[in-house]
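Comment thread on ticket #2218

A.B. wrote:
> Attaching the input chain for the structure job we discussed in standup.
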Amino acid sequence: MKKENLRDNMTNLELVLNMLAEATTTEISKENNPKTFADNKRIALKGAKIAGDTRK
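C.D. wrote:
> Ran it. Output below, let me know if you need it in another format.
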């Protein structure tokens, strides 16, 4: 993959789960208004966990 977008090589399920993780992380971030990198990292991990749990 030189100039291709990573999303061009994802399955529909991978795209949906990625969108879920992004949307969830955005909503959690809006609610918590993180101030530091550590806060943002914690919120990103929460969003990823929700998508991961959904996949399982």
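A.B. wrote:
> Thanks. Noting for the ticket: The chain has a mean pLDDT of 91.
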